[in-house]
Design the sequence.
């Protein structure tokens, strides 16, 4: 994110705090597609992604007056989406159950020759989804923010409320694990 | 530079200063193994991007309208309901029940439950008059928890305290929804499985039920809802603040009890204003002492000054 972009956001936040509600609309329009895409990468479900991204903006609207500008607006916003996603995971026992099923299936899946050419695009996407879902939460969050949202380590750390070194370590662990798990496709 | 010193991930992610990058590039030119590792990382990124879920983002205008609609704060009806429940003030709801019946009460209930023009749907349900009650009662047993919540909420709004006594059977069914959270098909379905954001709608009702003297299980409902998500916590907090602004000390005391019971992180400055109250001053002081570990007696300005720092945390 450019410095100019961050300044535009900061001005919009200021306008909103001064009572100009339309400034928030500009921010939603600016980040909505990114936010939806981010939630989709985390949930792999279009409906859940729309719900999470909407509720993320609703919560951002409610909390924006208290935003103190200690990070960029974008990092702050993604922190809200991450919290929204974590709440969603916590309360969705079905997701946990689904994950258990995935884990169970993974344990019992017979070893077959899984050349990329033998799987269609959908099946391949399912394999990746499964592997990414099985990453520890922090590794998955760091990976998605970095890989799909194009964020640098500093912004990711601000979004997740962790240190730069945590980001570095978790991204490295996620890569190491995925390289091993997906080696037949690489 | 040895292979162990090469920070390949940071190199790949462009997180290094120029001199370090140059040094790594020098190492890469000499080390086949590190080059292969870097190549594997690049292939992984390409592969993950290629297989990532992609989909058409929702229509921006529709998305924005929904965000705006959901951002609107609930009105002060919450306080009205709580006050009616507690002090028995008359004439809130049944007077609205004299209108003609809408074409389909259930359809309006579904719109209300799904928040599609919920305000208009509520007005239609009110206008339906007594004809709406049996449909709402039936919906208390609907398999869809959103309809259960909507029906209980509307029944609470439509039945004023006097009528609750007369129509005990209906009211008992509403209450039963709160009282038996664990019993499948019998009680309120606010268990972790199936908890939906819409369930937060019941918060004002639960607060009101607590105000009616049903604290024990109303608190239980509130505790679960408070754990639901940030939005629900916000609603609980909002309902507590609304109660706290009541003129009635009993309602204010209830707000303090809820804050205590639920362990809500509460804006303490709101409590300071209660220090003057003859009925609540002592409870407010005790609360402030517990929360901060400090004691400024009934000195409101000293408390406010001290809290400026505490609430910045």
Sequence:
């Amino acid at each position: 994110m450019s410095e100019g972009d961050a300044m535009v956001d900061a001005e919009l936040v200021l306008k909103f705090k001064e009572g100009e509600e339309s400034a928030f609309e500009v921010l939603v329009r600016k980040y909505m597609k990114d936010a939806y895409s981010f939630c989709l990468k985390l949930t792999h479900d279009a409906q859940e992604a729309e719900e999470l991204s909407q509720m993320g903006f609703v919560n951002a609207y409610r909390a924006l007056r208290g935003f103190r500008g200690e990070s960029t607006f974008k990092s702050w916003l993604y922190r809200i989406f991450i919290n929204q996603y974590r709440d969603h995971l916590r309360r969705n026992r079905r997701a946990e159950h689904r994950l258990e099923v995935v884990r169970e299936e993974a344990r019992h899946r017979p070893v077959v020759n899984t050349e990329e050419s033998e799987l269609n695009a959908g099946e391949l996407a399912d394999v990746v989804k499964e592997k990414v879902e099985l990453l520890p939460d922090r590794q998955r969050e760091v990976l998605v923010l970095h890989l799909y949202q194009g964020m640098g380590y500093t912004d990711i750390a601000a979004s997740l409320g962790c240190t730069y070194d945590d980001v570095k370590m978790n991204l490295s662990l996620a890569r190491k694990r995925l390289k091993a798990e997906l080696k037949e496709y690489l | 530079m040895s292979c162990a010193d090469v920070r390949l991930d940071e190199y790949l992610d462009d997180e290094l200063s120029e001199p370090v990058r140059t040094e790594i590039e020098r190492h890469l030119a000499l080390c086949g193994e590190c080059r292969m590792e870097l190549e594997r990382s690049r292939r992984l990124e390409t592969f993950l991007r290629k297989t990532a879920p992609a989909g058409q983002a929702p229509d921006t205008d529709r998305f924005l309208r929904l965000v705006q609609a959901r951002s609107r704060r609930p009105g002060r009806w919450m306080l009205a309901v709580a006050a009616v429940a507690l002090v028995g003030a008359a004439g809130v709801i049944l007077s609205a029940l004299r209108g003609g019946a809408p074409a389909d009460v259930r359809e309006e209930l579904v719109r209300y439950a799904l928040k599609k023009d919920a305000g208009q749907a509520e007005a239609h349900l009110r206008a339906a008059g007594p004809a709406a009650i049996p449909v709402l009662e039936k919906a208390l047993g609907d398999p869809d928890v959103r309809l259960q919540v909507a029906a209980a909420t509307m029944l609470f709004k439509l039945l004023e305290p006097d009528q609750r006594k007369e129509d005990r059977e209906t009211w008992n069914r509403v209450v039963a929804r709160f009282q038996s959270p664990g019993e499948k098909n019998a009680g309120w379905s606010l268990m972790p499985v199936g908890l939906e954001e819409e369930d937060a709608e019941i918060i004002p009702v639960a607060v009101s039920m607590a105000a009616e003297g049903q604290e024990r299980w109303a608190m239980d409902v509130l505790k679960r809802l408070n754990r639901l998500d940030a939005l629900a916590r916000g609603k609980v907090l909002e309902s507590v603040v609304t109660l706290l602004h009541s003129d009635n000390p009993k309602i204010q005391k209830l707000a303090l009890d809820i804050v205590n019971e639920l362990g809500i992180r509460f804006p303490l400055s709101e409590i300071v204003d209660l220090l003057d109250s003859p009925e609540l001053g002592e409870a407010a002081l005790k609360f402030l002492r517990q929360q901060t570990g400090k004691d400024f007696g009934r000195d409101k300005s000293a408390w406010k000054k001290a809290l400026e720092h505490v609430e910045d945390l």
User: Anything to note?
Assistant: Residues 267-313 of chain B form one domain. Residues 292 and 310 of chain B are 8 Å apart (CA to CA). Chain B has a mean pLDDT of 70. Chain B has three domains: 3-45, 77-264, 267-313.
